User: Which sequence fits this backbone?
């Protein structure tokens, strides 16, 4: 098939979803311009417009696979930059439901690093593309359209600093400006309907601190997650080794049970978790940062797929469509999978006029799975409110047994981790082979903490 090359695409937002979208668009447009409101440093750095990047960010295996497809040298660059890489099921020291999930080799790589490191490596590769330009300190103020308002033709931007406004024209504008996206308001101003939304209130709070890590200590490469047996427990903790011989430690909870941001309160919260691993490390470790909070009141989904009218030449992608409770670590992978759908449509030469409606339908199928997984788990807590998918309680009763079975059964563990990593659909947990093992599972058998990690690459 002859490949159509369009002229110019604009991407609003230079965070992870914007960078991945720009990478895909660069194959189909002569020029791609990323517009980012913040100042962007080439170094790993959290910016004002993405405060969440100061907190623990795990990249699911599927996200790493999609990113590696776009940037084949990314795993090596991560290792060179000090990230850890290892087999997902082999390295994760994950306490849940009264024990540690059984560790085994699943043949799937996972990586831990700071989110700013990952983003800086992706960004360096995107801006190195000859037809991609990143304009920072540039805030998009409004959309430009044809006189009948049916087609977006570009954007009006304001330069930070001097406040000067400029108009930039494009054949396609993609809004990847995150959860705070102005697309609903911009659409209404143009006479279109804003998308209907789903909101699931979870009242999750994070508090995060980094510590000095001794990589020579056998525990220095352990990736620890402690997640609650809901609803009787509400607290979680994550402690991952990251570049610069640091630990990143995020503590928090559901339903308003948030970790304090004073040092004593933070330590006491770590001590209150159902497994000692995080507390035992951080009570002796040297803190390297202040404690930073982040409040996540609700998961938000904007149903663009339900709109019947939408301006031509315009798309929305990433957190701007859907932002889930971050404790499940799905946001970047969801953005990567949405980008794959965009790539498939462009590869089929889908005309730009028809792109939005088809893209939103495909993106919605991608988002359905992490949304169901996140929202389903969140409804274990009675304080969670919002649209509850039919059958959630029944499914949760079964998945609770799955969680318990993962403590000693690696076949169930493999099935669970594949679903969690968005590698297999949730119904695969109900396959007769898994169902049988789950239903005959033995009661919880707590195991010792801090199992040694032998399979971590990147020494
Ligand atoms: C506490 C927390 C922890 C998380 N942990 C994980 C995790 O473990 N794993 C995971 O995969 N995901 C995680 N996420 C989600 C992840 O951070 C996002 O899914 C990811 O950043 C992709 O978002 P995005 O690029 O769509 O939007 P964002 O990251 O929000 O970026 C939007 C960008 O648009 C820019 N912008 C906004 N408005 C304008 C404008 N008008 N003009 C120009 N630029 C603009 C902003 O400055 C920003 O750079 C977490 C989220 C939170 C809140």
Assistant:
């Amino acid at each position: 098939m002859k490949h159509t090359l369009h002229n110019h695409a604009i991407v609003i937002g230079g965070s992870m979803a914007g960078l991945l979208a720009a990478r895909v668009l660069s194959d189909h447009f002569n020029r791609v311009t990323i517009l980012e409101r913040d100042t962007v440093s080439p170094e790993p750095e959290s910016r004002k417009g993405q405060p969440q990047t100061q907190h623990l960010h795990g990249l699911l295996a599927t996200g790493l696979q999609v990113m590696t497809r776009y940037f084949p040298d990314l795993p090596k660059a991560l290792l060179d930059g000090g990230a850890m890489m290892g087999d997902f099921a082999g390295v994760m020291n994950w306490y849940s439901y009264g024990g540690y999930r059984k560790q085994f080799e699943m043949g799937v790589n996972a990586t831990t690093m700071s989110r700013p490191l990952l983003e800086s490596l992706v960004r360096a590769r995107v801006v190195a593309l000859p037809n991609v330009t990143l304009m920072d300190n540039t805030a998009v103020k409004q959309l430009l359209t044809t006189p009948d308002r049916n087609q977006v033709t570009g954007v009006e931007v304001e330069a930070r600093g001097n406040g000067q406004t400029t108009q930039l024209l494009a054949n396609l504008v993609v809004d990847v400006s995150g959860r705070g996206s102005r697309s609903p308001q911009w659409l209404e101003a143009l006479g279109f309907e804003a998308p209907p939304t789903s909101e699931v209130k979870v009242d999750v709070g994070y508090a995060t601190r980094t510590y000095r890590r001794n990589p020579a200590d056998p525990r220095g490469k352990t990736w620890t997650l402690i997640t609650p047996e809901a609803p009787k427990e509400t607290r979680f903790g994550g402690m991952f080794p990251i570049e610069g011989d640091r630990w990143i430690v995020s503590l928090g909870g559901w339903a308003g049970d948030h970790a304090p941001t004073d040092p004593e309160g933070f330590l006491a919260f770590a001590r209150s978790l159902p497994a000692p691993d995080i507390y035992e490390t951080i009570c002796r470790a040297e803190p390297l940062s202040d404690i930073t909070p982040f409040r996540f009141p609700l998961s938000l989904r904007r149903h663009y797929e339900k709109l019947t009218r939408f301006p031509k030449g315009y798309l929305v992608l990433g957190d701007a469509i859907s932002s889930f409770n971050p404790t499940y670590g799905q946001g970047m992978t969801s953005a990567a999978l949405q980008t794959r759908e965009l790539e498939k449509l462009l590869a089929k030469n889908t005309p730009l006029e028809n792109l939005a409606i088809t893209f939103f339908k495909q993106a919605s199928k991608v988002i359905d799975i992490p949304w169901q997984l996140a929202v389903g788990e969140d409804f274990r807590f009675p304080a969670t409110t919002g649209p509850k998918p039919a059958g959630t309680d029944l499914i949760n009763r079964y998945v609770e047994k799955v969680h318990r079975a993962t403590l000693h059964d690696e076949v169930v563990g493999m099935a669970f981790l594949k679903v969690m990593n968005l590698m297999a659909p949730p119904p695969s947990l109900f396959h007769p082979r898994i169902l049988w093992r789950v239903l005959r599972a033995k009661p919880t058998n707590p195991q010792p903490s801090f199992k040694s990690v032998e399979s971590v690459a990147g020494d």
User: Anything to note?
Assistant: The chain is about 30% helix and 25% strand.
